[in-house]
Amino acid sequence: MSIAHGIRTLGVLGAGQMGTGIALVSALRAKVPVLLHDRSAEQVKKGLSLMDKLLAKDVAKGRLTNEEAKEARDRVSVVGVDAGIQGLRDVDMVVEAVSENLQLKQAIFSSFAAELKPEAILATNTSSISITKIAASALPTGVSAASEEGKRIASRVVGLHFFNPVPVMKLVELISALQTSQDTLDRARAFAIACGKEVTVSKDVPGFVSNALLMPFINEAIMCLEKGTATREDIDTTLKLGMNHPMGPLQLADFIGLDTCLAIQQTLYEGTRDSKYRPSLLLQQMVDAQWYGRKNGKGFYEYDK
Ligand code: 3HC
Fold first, then answer.
1. Rounded distance between C-alpha atoms, residue 53 and residue 47, angstroms
2. Ligand 1 pocket member 175 (CB < 6 A)
3. Is 84 flagged in the annotation as binding?
4. Which residues make beta-bridge pairs with 50?
5. pTM to 2 decimals?
């Protein structure tokens, strides 16, 4: 028996690549109204323009009618910078998709209990950070984690990890915090399925399954470059043509964002103390140089901004 997700309105926090993609598939596939919020109006503008471009391409390719595209776009509204998180107070689920930074996520989740409906699902699109830690940060000051209220609030937090580009990648990784309830998990899974995604489940370990496997692979490719084992092109071509990967690991690192790769690798290394996760010096230095990959035009390769 399929479980209803019961999401009548979704909030998406963060209008970067991931938040925009999540808003789009929710409006287009799950057909739910979406409230999109970001603390940068400029970022929202960029996100909406990407959404328009992707919908127009689907119409041009005959995959959507003009009407379907317009209906999907009309389901997305913007919560202005001034309204803040309070503007999401009526949503049934919020998906947080801000940068991969524990303090930032904790600050956001600590404001959810005061601002959102008590029954709303609080999902995070984190790539690697402990969902259990994020859930603990959702408790308002003075509410004990062991109290009924504390347990109820934390039980609504769940990891819902989408992949970039969200409209294209078919997977969502579902992660349960120690505190997450079965009802929250079931509804989050049902929502991801309604967005057209296949769901895998991972334990709440650093990087979950996806990034615990992907990041050492990317890091090893960066170390090959660092050691001069091969050129960037030959490293990428080896994986593309030798293993049929759609992108080589250095191209993929640029695509994900080198700052994001470093943040994930640091979480993996700090969370496990296993040397196989230690970020390479070259990656660290590239981020120090503010070479973040595709998003700002310079990474292992150069891009038109
Ligand atoms: N947003 C939406 N759609 C996009 C897109 C974007 N940013 N970039 C490309 N696409 C779409 C294109 O519009 C095109 O759609 P169409 O078939 O409807 O025309 C389709 O993807 C194919 O694009 P292209 O023909 O331009 O290029 P490619 O065939 O090279 O495919 C790619 C591009 C889909 C990005 C492919 O290279 C790929 O699959 N790369 C690997 C991506 C990957 O591994 N993602 C996971 C990253 S890890 C992650 O997200 C987890 C996080 O925690 C780090």
1. 10
2. no
3. no
4. none
5. 0.96
